[in-house]
Amino acid sequence: MKAARRVERRSPVNVLTLTPQTAVETAHCVVFGYHDLGYACIEALLQQGAPIAALFTHRDDPGEEIWWRSCAQLAAQFSVPVFTDEELGADWVAKLKSWHPAVIYSFNYRRLLPRQILECARIGAFNVHPSKLPAYRGRAPINWVLVNGERETGVTLHHMVARADAGDIVGQETVAIDDHDTALSLSRKITPLAAGLIARFHPLIVCARAPRYPQDLRSGSYFGRRTPADGRVDWNWPARRIFNLVRAVTHPYPGAFCMAAGRKLFIWAASIGAEHGCIGDSGQILARRVDGGVEVAVGDGSVVIHRAQFEGGVEAPAAETLAGPLIEATAKLV
């Protein structure tokens, strides 16, 4: 990775008269970034020698399971100023304008940037969104594609406008979704593709030569923020729907859950026992398997729970967690 250069504030230049590398090295960027995807995309800019005037990021929430690399730490290594201000009012707009940024990037930043911020960038403002737009605009696309049982998704680099994830597309990559994928594994598939889009298109963006394709929002979809309560399992659902929910919200997310003997039970790993058929009453425990799994009847087919945990307890194989006379007496999950 190239060593960072000190960012000097200077007047805008005519990008059409510059070579791609000179354009990269003179086009100051302001980045709004967070999470592992943000880290990888910032790293891709630094590797090209792009001067980053500032990073706006979030403070880690101690209530979250933090598994990602820190954008703030990466920026600090390269003497990039880091700010964690959540409210970007008039004072920040004025300060951003004084920096004369050529490009503003948003990489997994959790707040919608106002139009006044976007308009500070001379060339434009761009976002990397972890879905294949216009599908799955909005929040938590990686979780939602798994909840909905999609077989592929992708990542999109696009122009930012006031409406979320609605700007013209610069470039996209596609990734297959396998049955063994969780939100974490799918995120790790998408992250290097996102960095690859920045490596490929940033030189074109700063030379004003990047492709631009309008989105057909009528053919897309929009999904909102997910909450821990959305992890509630309904045992009347078909087996695949329950399986998809479990893998969409398992570690490092809050987890799918139900109730067992009056206690909250988290389900961390599951598979499909039978895809179809009425095997028993929904939620009925059918069998405890020698591999530690517990098979449960559902609305259509059955699900095998492999790892589970009572609230306040320890995660363990499901047969171990669901042992004991109280569970044996009820033999049903709700």
The computed structural class is: alpha/beta
Mean pLDDT: 91
CATH architecture of the largest domain: 3-Layer(aba) Sandwich
**Count of discrete alpha- or pi-helical segments spanning 4 or more residues:** 10
Uncertain residue ranges: 2-13
Q: Considering DSSP H and I runs of 4 or more, what fraction of the residues is helical?
A: 25-40%
How many separate domains? 2
Order of helical and strand elements: HEHEHEHEHEEHEEHEHEEEEEEHH
The CATH superfamily of the largest domain appears as Formyl transferase, N-terminal domain
Description:
The chain is of the alpha/beta class and 334 residues long. It folds into 2 domains: 15-222, 3-Layer(aba) Sandwich (Rossmann fold); 228-330, Methionyl-tRNA Fmet Formyltransferase, Chain A, domain 2, CATH 3.10.25. It is built from 10 helices and 15 strands. The strands form 3 sheets. The chain has a 7-stranded mixed sheet with strand order 3-2-1-4-5-7-8. A hairpin with a 5-residue loop joins strand 12 and strand 13 (294-297). Helix 1 (20-26) packs across helix 7, helix 2 packs parallel to helix 7 and helix 6 packs antiparallel against helix 8. The radius of gyration is 23 Å and the shape is elongated. The chain starts with 19 loop residues before the first helix and ends with a helix.
